[in-house]
Amino acid sequence: FLSENPALARRCQQEGIIFIGPSAEVMLTMGDKIKAREAMKKAGIPVVPGTEGSISDVKEALKLIRE
């Protein structure tokens, strides 16, 4: 959907068109699960328990699954 495309929001802003929706920066942040989680925690919004960052290898993933 174009309405979920950060490039559209940015282009509208550049052209002086009012885009009804989140800014391109917000879309990019919320589109990245790690950045979105960090933003929510920083804002004091509860998040589902999980890792604080990305999982770098299979051994780490298996360890987390078993916990």
From TrEMBL:
Example GO molecular function: ligase activity
UniProt domain Biotin carboxylation: residue ranges: 1-67
Keyword Ribonucleoprotein recorded: no
Keywords associated with the record: ATP-binding, Ligase, Nucleotide-binding
Name this polypeptide is given: Putative biotin carboxylase, subunit of acetyl-CoA-carboxylase
Species name: uncultured prokaryote
Taxonomic path: unclassified sequences, environmental samples
